[in-house]
Amino acid sequence: MVPPENLTAGVRPRRMLARLAALLAVPVASVVLAGSVVEPSAAAVPLAVPAVEAAPLPDPAILTAKLKKVSTKNIGKVGLVVTTTDGQELAARSANTPLTPASTMKVLTTMTALDVLGADATFATRVVDEGNGRIVLVGGGDPLLTDKTSTSSYKPASLAKLAKATLTALKAAGRSKVTLRYDASLFSGPTFSPHWKSRWKGWEARIAALEINSGKLSNGRASSDPARTAANAFARRLKASGVKVTSIAAAHADPAATELARVTSTTLDRIIRRTLLVSDNVAAETLSRQAAVARGAAGSFTGASANVTAWLTERGLWKSGQKILDGSGLAPGSKLTANGLAAAIRLALADAAFAPILAGLPVAGESGTLEHRFDDPSEKAGRHTVHAKTGTLSGLAALAGWLTTADGAVLVFAELGNDASSYYRVYDWLDREAAVVARCGCR
User: Fold this and answer.
1) Whole-prediction pTM
2) Superfamily of domain 4-118+271-439
3) Quick one: which of 281, 276, 344 has its CA closest to 313?
4) Cα atoms in the Cβ-side hemisphere of radius 13 Å centred on 442
5) In terms of DSSP H, where are the helices of 71-212?
6) Closest to 160 (Cα-Cα) out of 214, 206, 212, 218
7) What is the fold, at CATH topology level, of the domain defined by 124-266?
8) CB–CB of 301/191 below 8 Å?
9) What does the alpha-carbon distance between residue 399 and residue 316 come to, in Å, rounded to a whole number?
10) What's the whole-number average pLDDT of the chain?
């Protein structure tokens, strides 16, 4: 079965964009027009975190005492830290203990990709002509490529558009028959991580440089060969337009081949916002590989994980005992500390270049994977003020982000709960702890 966090990821774009417009100091009318959703552009003003100047901080002793009152019953291991934006520790519990982070890993993955590739990076899917009637569909690692044209502005590239452009080029050359090859060699290694649970194979998408519809088939199951699935879909579109496709096979495109057509993804900053908001595993893994390839490493699970580790080390964010095995957080064997996650969030708050990370964090009670969280009276204080990445696997969950206290202080927090009777039990602990901080006070 699919890991719990990926079963539902309800998003209310209008409400979220109105909030982002306020944070970005952009008029609401510029992002919501005539009943349709128009997301903020990459050129928008960097995200500004609201704060009251000289807002009083919680007393560490009082805050710690209040946090300890939140029950950890049926949760085997917890890690917690609350800090100011400049790193002053206000409360901590096993904050240096490495625990399984689940999808909070995506914060580190996307920060690495953003820093390495740049916010305006895009990814192209191309068709090239090698002569002798042979064309090659070349995957460029667009994680949001679709088969049919999507209405989502996050997904401008589709095989439908690519086939149409290819058909135009073929007709101009007087051609109506081709041999189709496909090239997904930008990435390497296994498409399904050996560190993921084998029972997920039927449902959790594999990772490839040529992939459509997030690696899923029409019945919701995962494609066993995403690149071949994409090539078959492209061939069907060519055939429907009257082009005879004599054969389909994997190959490496000739670098000197002439380009016939291309479709291009939206910009990286917007891909990241969506990735974090809905916790998109395929996008996170794909972006991690793109960053690895850009730095000369292998575009594989191993190469991408090593690249994120190296980037964190270079940034002074690496913590002893941590282990990164993938980019999505699906690997139960990955380990991060609360302090490590909090340090990354502090960097995102301090450096405007990481504004897309902050913009992508779900908001409690409003958007993404936090839309339906903070749902009981003891958690109410966290609604609309907690901005955090979630993480969920069987028997564990995590939350990492920032919030504004009742007194106006902006604080950073990270919480991880492992070895629990149910991830729902961990949700209660995570949300109640965050709500305690949001209610402060605490003096």
Assistant:
1) 0.90
2) DD-peptidase/beta-lactamase superfamily (3.40.710.10)
3) 344
4) 24
5) 105-117, 159-172
6) 212
7) D-tyrosyl-trna(Tyr) Deacylase; Chain: A; (3.50.80)
8) no
9) 22
10) 91
